[in-house]
User: Fold these one by one.
Assistant:
Number 1:
Amino acid sequence: MEVRTELISHLREKFFKKLDDEGPPDPKFHPADIARVKENNNWLRRFLEHNENNIQESLNMLWDTCIWRSKFGTNEITEENVRKDYLDIGLCFIHGKDKDGKTMFVIKCSLHTKGSKEFNQLQKLVVYWFERLERLTNGNQISLFFDMSDTGILNMDMEFIKYLINLCKSYYPNFLNYIIIFEMPWILNTAFKIIKSWLPPKAIPKIKFVHKGNIHELVDPNDVLTCWGGSNEYLFKFVSEAQNNIDTTMNGKFDSRKVHFAEGSPLTEQSPSGFGEQSTEDQLLSIEPDAVIFNKSGNEIGGSILLKNVTSDKPLSYKVKTTSPGKFRVRPSSGILLPQEQRSISVVVQQEHNVRALLHVDKFLVMCLPLKDPNTSAQELAALWKVKKHLF
């Protein structure tokens, strides 16, 4: 559905008018979500698409989503505060693409029985993966893939499935491409009828039943696992997001290479008066991992780092520099991080350079400046960093 730019602007205006008229809810909206409403047209577009361009329904959903995100602590969820055993078991994971090129989120139902896990931790697990998918796909649609092979009545946790559906229905607008159900046992037909009743009418056509004989019609043949009747031998192993933002599939005998950060990174600079706060005593920015690990994906050689503003109240401006600017492309090399916000930074080796020539002399310097105003313009930031140029 086409969404006109003026509708997006109208939705944004109505949101902030409601905020001015009613005041912030309790708890207050998270600064990262407020910034998202201000700056991210694509996110607002999804609410309008989800509600067929109905402004009022889109506003209600956007408002409720921001309330839920604040109460649930969505912006604070990371792999460090999700139960590691839940991450490692492989109940949920990202794998492959559907026939439309949309990323699939796999739920392996045989690995879960109702009551076997703390439900609040199970909720947190799913939200962690959904947020990771949002970052991975830039908010593009995904397909839920329910792997129901080897499942029985005990594996049908209706509360868990209802929670998954409600997330997509209420808080992740226009997120679903397909709901692919693989090898559903006939004994679960009655349970599925109940599940189907929870879905909005427009979501019913998204449901697709597949088995080993026809899975290739919905899933990219290259991504069909051996356990689904294909030839892809992938076995789930949890990989940190910081190491997985660029596909680490190895081609041939390519050896990964590491480039380390300059001593003292992240380096905190004091900002000129009017821009920021003069404090360098506390840690402001965290970097993961401790070196950029380069791997090959298709014709591209790249790696990634994860920057996180670890403060609870300070927006930060960050900047990433390299000793070899002609060798690397860093995106985004600078920007603003709101309190507790994290961002993946990709580092790609320029095609004319050979990754095997990467030397220990190649370094990256990560710098940050605390800001008073998170709405500092790009021009003001450029001027700010230009003032600091003599320090580098």
Number 2:
Amino acid sequence: MEHSAWHELIKEQLPEHYFGKINQFLDQVYTSGTVYPPREKVFAAIQTTALEKVKVVILGQDPYHGPGQAQGLSFSVPNSVPAPPSLQNILKELADDIGVKQEHDLTGWAEEGVLLLNACLTVPAGQANGHAGQIWEPFTDAVIKVVNGLDQPVVYILWGAYARKKKALITNPNHLIVESAHPSPLSAYRGFFGSKPFSKANAFLHSKGSSEIDWLR
């Protein structure tokens, strides 16, 4: 992980030995089988979105587990790989809410100040949630707590029951929580479609005097 403002504040939330445990875990899993994303992209969310730039957090559960999909940013895949169903539904809602985004790689969002954070940062090939409960949750909870402590206004977009469990970590009255059903095909019609999270986020940021996210970037 890069030495940065993130690193210092996350360290304050965790026992001193925890970073060593993470490195041991990474050494073990990346030498014993196929794991996604590529090791150099495990911490891409906090490496791409500087702490002082965070305006929105979109919380996912764990990375995509197919070849070439995961790039360390929740819900995002490279343009060279077909968009998975959840991402297709996110872009469909975005089109209805704000407009059509030409590319499905969400790196531009991360550069705009959207922290695309998964609760688990790695996954074994073909095994959804295969690393859940092993190492990552205390670390990513610490990331959420660091963002919760920011003075600048932040919008948390929580899709689905798993993400909504993290509400307990979000206590700052200056921040906004936008929640709905998950964009997966199993639940998108139960309240995700029509929830307008992107325009709600921008309206809140605008009301606080903060610049809006260019969701079509």
Number 3:
Amino acid sequence: MGAVELRGCSVVELGAGTGLVGIVAALLGAHVTITDRKVALEFLKSNVQANLPPHIQPKAVVKELTWGQTLGSFSPGEFDLILGADIIYLEETFTDLLQTLEHLCSNHSVILLACRIRYERDHNFLAMLERQFTVSKVHYDPEKDVRIYKAQRRSLREDL
């Protein structure tokens, strides 16, 4: 995709795990909310403290987000950029993930999802995503078999 300007952007990382993607976004100047389920939050907080200089740490907030369940603590359409790395693999989470993406997105938000397509169910998620969003593959690394998809809310004009 080339360079992405994140300075001043409002970014959320979903299913952060180690928080690497959110930490990098903060280092690039974004105001980042790094999310995962409650069980992962202490580890995430310690990673943010260990890997971000003290003057950048205030730009990275660690917050609980269980897809489809704890959406009330997030304003609808709150983020400019929604990031997810390797979060498309459990079929039972697909509906909740889509609901979460729908809630967090504004008409101008961009979603970037990095994933490996391991199973047919992963294609099923992309088909579900395409029903609600305009989706395009923006990068493929054949060596690692990783794809990056960009999604944006469908405009009313597209649906006409």
